[in-house]
Amino acid sequence: MNVKLPLKYKLDLKIIGVALLYYLFARVGYFFAFEGSTALPTWPPSGIGFALIILLGRSSWPGITIGSLVANVMAYWNNPHLPAQEIITISSLIAVGNTLEAVTGNYLVKKWIRDDFPFRSAKNAFRFLFVTMMMCWIGAGVSTGALYLNHVVSPDLLLRTGISSWVGNVVGILLFTPFILACSKKIHVRLTTEKAIEVGIFILLLGGIVALLEVDYLVSTVERALPFLVLPFLLWLAFRFELIVAIAGVLITALLSIYMTIGGVGPFVLSDSYNSMLLLQIFIGVISISTIILSATVRERHHAQNKLLEFNENLEAMVQERTRALNEEIVTRKNAEEKIQRTNTELSKRNTELDNFVYSVSHDLRAPIASVLGLINLAKKDTDGVMKDMYLDMIHKSAMQQDHFIKEILDQSRNSRLEVKREEIHFEPLIDETFNQLKFATSTGQSVQKVIRINQEAPFFSDRWRLKVILNNIISNAIRYRNGKDPVIKVNVEIREHLATLAIEDNGKGIEKDHLPNIYKMFYRATDDGAGSGLGLYIVKEAIDKLNGHIDIESEVGRGTTVKLAIPELV
Question: For the stretch 467-490, what's the b/e string if a residue is b when 16 or more beta carbons lie within 10 angstroms of its beta carbon?
């Protein structure tokens, strides 16, 4: 069952936990005290309190005060030279100093370093060392002052006691704060074959150093050289492993060094216990600082390498993306250039056609008018009724020719301007309607014989107006250019698989082969009889193109012409 505690109880539990940890590590610190000295080689509670206030927040400071007060009261309580009132006063002042030390350090970390884990970069690691040295003057200064004011420390030992206390606090922070902060982070353990080999070599070399201590004539030299022999191993840990592994090695080395020195063994044992402790503190400080700085530098380098690899991967992806975008842009520009080129070609064609159109229209429109005006003048001067009727008939033909020409111009204009319209087509009524409209197209009494065959079983959709324009122009040409006999026009329509195939065959004059390549040009005439405007087949071709269809003309002079159309269904 999960029990959710109120905020007040959570804070109380946090303060009690901090107080207990502070007191327990204070007892550890007193365990390593040098005989006959009030100073300690390291003060672990300074590192513990500093780490906890960083992790738990400023609200946990009462736990540091309580833990420090209890620990110091217990430490001085058995001193027969100090009354209870002085013990409480000294302990209270030291507790205040230790609390201010931790709170000041936390403030500097939050405002200056701005990172709860200051060992991600060498710059922040150096800032952490500076913060450590500055904050420890507060705790050491207040503690030394409290001892001096209560006559526990004489004036001649004041400086010595203050420096020892400051160094002890610094060493305590360097040993325990990085270790606890590293433990609070998510630990990634990846034991590769390479790392396993390194660990094996590491253990083997350590065993070699221990073996050298068993050699009689090397014992003294190796014992004094131990600080120098240990340092490369610690730097190795810092260079190849995470901070928690490296600082754990430093912590084990420091505690073993303190324990051996207290027992009178090792390279730090001097004639004076104070000097032994100071030498030991310097050694611990040096290996701690070196390990922390090297670990932060290596971590920063790995981070930079990972960022560089990530940047390279992103850069490669960006280059590929940009290359793809450039290719797409090149394709787009190429398509645009081709479209512009097609447009320019089309505009050039239109300009040429427009010039021809203006010239031909002005000529073809004026010719019938001039003819009509001339015939009218002749009719006015001639009094013969028969001649007047002949003049009227000729005027009528000229007017019909001009009307036909104007209709063709309108058809061309509509074909260019109107969008394609999709509607259901029934070819039989469409063809009948075309023939009915053209039955008066012949100038003689000749009749038009039509043979129509339509195979349409399914609906067909296309543009009815354009189909009618196409049929009207082709059939009217078949009637107009007859071969001196009654026109016979055969129309075959086949609808199959969404495609209309039309074949329109006549028995007319036919078209010479030299004219066939040019018959779709605007105002081109394959004959000089003047019956047509030269727009008919041009309009047919333009309308066929609008419907995405195809036209093919086969003709033989004197035998007739066959026009084949293939028109796809509009979708």
Answer: bbbbbbbbbbbbbbbbbeeebbbb
Helix ranges (DSSP H) in 418-437: 427-437
Nearest residue to 289 via CA among 130, 147, 437: 130
Compute and round to an integer the Cα radius of gyration of the chain.
55
Cα–Cα distances in angstroms (integers) from residue 507 to residues 130, 153, 158, 212, 514, in the given order: 113, 139, 136, 125, 20
What confidence tens digit (pLDDT) does each residue in 291-321 have? 999 988 988 888 888 888 888 888 878 888 8
DSSP string, 175-220: HHHHHHHHHHSPP-----HHHHHHHHHHHHHHHHHHHHTTSGGGHH
Angle between helices 427-437 and 464-480 (to 10 degrees): 50
DSSP state of 38: S
Residue 38, pLDDT > 60, answer: no
Q: ∠ CA 214-216-218 to the nearest 5 degrees?
A: 85
- Round to whole Å and give the CA distance between 242 and 233: 14
Q: Which residue is associated with the tokens 């029990």?
A: 3
Q: Where are the alpha helices (DSSP H) in 241-272?
A: 243-262
Strand partners of residue 225: none
In 447-505, which residue ranges form alpha helices assigned H by DSSP?
Answer: 464-480
The whole-chain average pLDDT of the chain stands at 83
DSSP one-letter string for 117-140: STTSSHHHHHHHHHHHHHHHHHHH
- For residue 330, is pLDDT > 70? yes
Higher-confidence position of 529 and 374:
374
Angle between helices 219-240 and 193-212 (to 10 degrees): 170
The structure's pTM equals 0.57
Q: How far is it, in rounded angstroms, from Cα 172 to Cα 45?
A: 7
Q: Alpha-carbon distance 335 to 328, whole Å? A: 10
- Residue 311 exposure: Cα atoms within 13 Å on the Cβ side: 6
- Report DSSP letters for 299-360, one per residue: HHHHHHHHHHHHHHHHHHHHHHHHHHHHHHHHHHHHHHHHHHHHHHHHHHHHHHHHHHHHHH
How many angstroms separate the CA atoms of 199 and 90, rounded?
Answer: 48
Question: Both tokens of residue 515?
Answer: 């004219």
Specify the amino acid at residue 417.
R
* Angstrom distance (rounded) from CA 56 to CA 103: 12
- Scan for tokens 């209890």, then name that residue: 70
Given a contact cutoff of 8 angstroms between Cβ atoms, the answer to whether 532 and 480 are in contact is yes
With tokens 């990085």, the residue in question is 178
> In angstroms, rounded to a whole number, what is the distance separating the alpha carbons of residues 325 and 321?
6
- Looking at the predicted structure, is the pLDDT value of residue 355 above 60? yes
- Residue 167 CB: number of other CB atoms within 10 A? 25
Bridge partners of 504, per DSSP, are 491, 563
Helices (H), 382-463: 385-417, 427-437
> What is the C-alpha to C-alpha distance for residues 471 and 309, in angstroms, rounded to an integer?
72
Best CA proximity match to 530, nearest among 393, 354, 360: 360
Tell how far CA 552 is from the center of its chain: 55
